[in-house]
Amino acid sequence: MYRCIELAKNGIHTCKPNPRVGCVIVKNEKIIGEGWHKKTGGDHAEIMASRIAK
């Protein structure tokens, strides 16, 4: 969860009025994808993380 919060902080000035969101995907105790909501109108954190995880 700490990593999700740290990732979310990356969108502090760029995703308003949307909330800052961070996402981490873990498989077998290893991070396989992560992302954050980079800008308003852009992909959400979950989409970014799932693209990396594939």
- Report the radius of gyration as a whole number of Å: 11 Å
Number of strands: 2
Approximately how much beta-strand content do the residues carry? 15-25%
Number of domains: 1
Helix percent band = 25-40%
Main sheet attributes: strand count, strand direction, barrel closure:
2 strands, antiparallel
Task: Name the overall outline.
Answer: flat
Structural class: alpha+beta
Straight-line N-to-C gap: 21 Å
Q: What is the count of helical runs?
A: 2
Main sheet strand line-up: 1-2
Order of helices and strands: HEEH
The unreliable regions are none
Average pLDDT reading? 95
Task: Give a structural overview.
The protein has one domain. The chain contains 2 helices and 2 strands; from the N terminus they run αββα. It has helices at 2-8, 45-53, and strands spanning 22-27, 30-36.
Keywords for this structure?
54 residues, two-stranded antiparallel ribbon
Set down the secondary structure blueprint.
Blueprint (H helix, E strand, L loop, with lengths): L1 H7 L13 E6 L2 E7 L8 H9 L1
Antiparallel strand pairs: 1-2
Gist of the model:
The chain is of the alpha+beta class. 30% of the residues lie in helices and 24% in strands.
